[in-house]
Design brief:
Blueprint (H helix, E strand, L loop, with lengths): L4 E7 L4 E9 L2 H8 L29 E3 L2 E3 L1 E8 L4 E8 L3 E2 L7 E10 L15 E2 L1 H15 L6 E5 L4 H6 L3 E2 L5 E3 L2 E8 L1 H9 L3 H13 L1
Parallel strand pairs: 8-10
Antiparallel strand pairs: 1-2, 1-9, 2-5, 3-4, 5-6, 6-8, 7-8, 10-13, 11-13, 12-13
Length: about 220
């Protein structure tokens, strides 16, 4: 059973840090908030010529296929105090072989996405909104892996625009062929145990800033 976990995001328009929670993503949440609300906000400027790859996904039925079988998995959402889903992720609850460390096992992450309102390239004003969503979800995945005994190892296939983003958070490219799906080349990557420890044990700037802000308010 997935237990809610506290997280902190940065709300760029106001320049403040806000509390959030990572919780199970239910079918009702997926239908109402991701598949409907995410893509119908007035702040968005969506082009039919170059739609985001997740534009028409049905989050209620998504699964992780690996090695010709479906992995047991859980869907997670990061939610702000107003109940809005700011990002979501699908992660396996059963391990697969590590691509970096012989004999090690790793969980598999799929579909780690922030809400369209948080993607400057999709916004009319091209400005950041909630930031830190992807990092908080990735931190949750590494912590979940560590709690299950896999030392924080997390494996995924990164979409072309986010390979650098994952590398900055410690993931390494694997010596494996890219995964091609619907014309998009995904790069196999993995978070090793050492990088997972750094990601988990040294809070990002957003969390350090939030703690500092809380102290000033007290």
């Amino acid at each position: 059973m997935i237990q809610p976990k506290a997280a902190i995001l940065y709300f760029a328009p106001a320049g403040v840090y806000v509390d959030a929670h990572i919780v199970p993503l239910t079918a009702d949440m997926a239908e109402a908030q991701i598949m409907r609300d995410w893509w119908n906000e007035v702040c968005l400027e969506l082009s039919s010529d170059q739609e985001p790859i997740d534009r028409h996904w049905d989050w209620r039925d998504l699964a992780i296929e690996y090695g010709g079988r479906i992995l047991r998995s859980e869907k997670l959402a990061i939610v702000t105090g107003d109940g809005a889903v700011q990002g979501a992720m699908l992660i396996s609850t059963e391990a697969v072989d590590s691509g970096l460390t012989k004999g090690a096992r790793t969980l598999f992450v799929e579909l780690l996405f922030t809400a369209p309102r948080n993607r400057p390239d999709l916004r009319i004003d091209k400005a950041p909104y909630f930031t830190g969503v992807g990092t908080e979800l990735l931190r949750w995945a590494a912590d979940f892996s560590r709690r299950l005994g896999y030392e924080g190892h997390v494996r995924l296939d990164a979409s072309p625009d986010f390979v650098d983003w994952y590398e900055r958070r410690g993931l390494q490219k694997l010596n494996a062929d890219p995964i091609v799906f619907e014309g998009v080349r995904y790069t196999p990557m993995e978070l090793p145990a050492e990088a997972a420890n750094e990601l988990l044990d040294f809070p990002p700037v957003s969390q350090r800033g939030a703690k500092h802000a809380r102290k000033k308010r007290q």
